[in-house]
Amino acid sequence: MSQSIIAHRYADALFQLGQERSKLEKFETELQTLKEVFRSSEEIISFLKHPRFSIDQKKTMIAESFQSFSEEIVNLLKLLVERHREDIILDMIQDYIRMMNDAKGIADADVYSVRQLSEAEKQRISESFAPKVGKQSLNLTNIVDPSIIGGIRLRVGNRIFDGSVSGKLRRIERKLLSTNNR
């Protein structure tokens, strides 16, 4: 079974547990913090994967390091270590966050522009395009790409909205080439 399927199952179980105990938001906040900790500190992952340390030592480290976290999150981390699933922790966190965003009606999107967009511009883009993809808002990541010449290109999942100058030029070129071939 692939790592992503396993990560999704753990995230789904945690999401259901959060719903039952009304802790969805708390879990999300803790998982965001956990994601930053695991991304910024390679030592934690290498410690958890290292065969020289016993599972009990790893569980003790988790309990001590994350004592301010909810019991459910700490127990999940201990379970993942016990089952030698340290590799899926970040994927599991991403899946949980994706589930939370779906529940809130939020989608992640990349917006390509010639320059860095202001928060007001991002907000207007989110308000304009969220209804087109059936969401309430978009969580935008701005990617500066001078090759688009002007305008914006927005990618939400597998949908692309291309209002860039380079995109319009490509469409004109295709149209001209197709009329020349007739």
UniProtKB/TrEMBL annotation:
Query: Does this entry carry the keyword Membrane?
Result: yes
Q: What's the superkingdom here?
A: Bacteria
Annotated localization: Cell membrane; Membrane
Keywords carried by this UniProt record: ATP synthesis, Cell membrane, CF(1), Coiled coil, Hydrogen ion transport, Ion transport, Membrane, Transport
**Keyword Cell membrane found:** yes
InterPro entries referenced in this protein's UniProt entry, alphabetically? ATP_synth_OSCP/delta_N_sf (IPR026015), ATPase_OSCP/d_CS (IPR020781), ATPase_OSCP/dsu (IPR000711)
Where it mainly occurs, coarsely classed, is membrane
Q: Which Gene3D superfamilies match?
A: N-terminal domain of the delta subunit of the F1F0-ATP synthase
Q: How does it sit in the membrane?
A: Peripheral membrane protein
Q: Which residues form a coiled coil?
A: 17-44
Q: What does this gene product do?
A: This protein is part of the stalk that links CF(0) to CF(1). It either transmits conformational changes from CF(0) to CF(1) or is implicated in proton conduction.
Q: Which family does it belong to?
A: Belongs to the ATPase delta chain family.
The entry's protein name is ATP synthase subunit delta
Q: Which gene encodes it?
A: atpH
